[in-house]
Amino acid sequence: MAAGSRTSQILAFALLCRPWLQEAGAVQSVPLSRFFDNAMLHAHRLHQLAFDTYQKFEEAYIPKENKYSFLQNPQTSLCFSESIPTPSNMEERQQKSNLELLRISLLLIQSWLEPVQFLRSVFANRLVCGTSDSDVYALLKSLEEGIQTLMGNYRLLHCFRRNMDKVETFLRMAQCRSVEGSCGF
Question: PANTHER family, from UniProt (predicted)?
């Protein structure tokens, strides 16, 4: 398990279990705001990374005239994380408790642990072969697979960007409610 995912799980555990652990005297008093500040920093970094990666991929591989038609294709429009019920608008988010927002955020983060590993392996340079005649077919097959994979991963990158935006929004709302009272959401 990567250090970042371990940190995220520990942070989520600490945020979810903190009230019970404090009652039992198992945790020294650490300001809740510090937990949320760290969570927000990580969520913002993930969202920015997802946004930047998606934008660079889109600029490099998706012609502007095909940008939206590609996502409207039924085969490329659904995110695998659509099965995780998330509030879709401000009113629905406001109706969720902090615990529910944190649980949804954790589910979204956990749902991306494996796909992010997959994306990392896909975008690693795998064409480190010689160019002898015997390698031509293998290189062509590898290139074919690479292009198919790149086009297939546009949807995955789009979903990653959307979900990290949701995580950042949910954590910001929970932070405002828990630490700052009401933030006008």
Answer: CHORIONIC SOMATOMAMMOTROPIN HORMONE 1, SOMATOTROPIN,PROLACTIN
The answer to the question of whether 44 is labelled as a binding residue is: yes
Q: How far apart are CA 2 and CA 135, in angstroms?
A: 35
Question: What CATH number should be reported for the domain holding residue 67?
Answer: 1.20.1250.10
Q: Please tell me whether 42 is known to bind a ligand.
A: no
Q: What are phi and psi of 63, to 5 degrees?
A: -60, 140
**Which strand (E) or helix (H) includes residue 164?**
helix 133-178
d(CA 156, CA 114): 12
* CB of 47 closer than 8 Å to CB of 172: no
- Does a structural domain hold residue 183? no
Q: Is the pTM of this model over 0.70?
A: no
Length of the chain: 185
